[in-house]
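1st attempt posting a full record on here, be nice pls
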Amino acid sequence: MKNHLSKFLAAVLLLLSISAFAQKPAAGKLWTVAKANAWYKQHKWMSGADFIPSNAINQLEMWQANTFDPATIDRELGYAEGIGFNTMRVFLYSLVWKQDKAGFKKRIDQYLTIANKHHIQTMFVFFDDCWNADAKVGLQPAPKQGVHNSGWLQDPGNRLTNTGETAMLQAYVTDIMTTFKHDKRILLWDLYNEPGNSKKKEASMGLLIKVFAWARAVNPDQPISAGLWDWSFEKLNAYQALNSDIVTYHDYTEEASHLKTIQMLKTHGRPLICTEYMARTRGSKFANIMPMLKKENVGALNWGFVMGKTNTIYAWDNPMPDGGEPKEWFHDIFRKDGTPYKPEEVELIKKLNGK
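the predicted structure (as tokens):
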């Protein structure tokens, strides 16, 4: 009798545990190559840019309530629609969420509504190892004259050493992704921009692994990725490539070198999206790179859109202290009034996009 009772209780406990497990949302898994390619085929060829409105120096100024500017976003995404761009890559920021969770999500929805009106899908970026490591909410600094991205912010930057910061970052990623996990206006989640930059190298591996785990736990409808960018970072590159549903990457080199990158990454069998290219003074231009990307069926998102407070008309390593306009812009396509920097470039972009 005792033995039968023990078996009965064990069976009940097993059923309860199965039931409890079944009620939990299943964690996502890496998309199969077949699923990734089927997803890619459902979309037009992706072309666009990394976008921040011209009146924002960094991610905080774009998203904080006092400086969020739907009118400028609407106007400038109108420039994008006019040349046939259908995809924009946009950086979020964790401190805005920490400061005002509901308000931030409302502003994200506003942004997506504006982008969708212009027939543009959005690729959102969570973390970033580029440029300034210390961020403060509130009024942002004025641009440093003639200096490329003088106010751009790493996320989380130096805050990662703070007690409880990892838990906050997990809550941030989980909340944003859970809120928008079924939103068709979002094309893809780019989890981490250039991990290992700012001389961090493999020190960024811990957060990289965590953010992939957090994203898989949410299991969004959209694919997840983290772009490869420095070919000397073997461990980071391997993790990013082998855990991304869609392989994304950055390449600012000229055509022959960039094509070798594509040929190497195609060995994964997954769709490719170049999420950063086009640095005119380095030989990466619309005229030589964008047609090649289309021919290779690789998504094409250049860095920079409307010249503004980010100062990305100036090169990374060549500041102009007098603040004059460089003879050849490094990035960006339009002046603030929508006038193209180079009309022939805009005509080529329109042609490639069937406009």
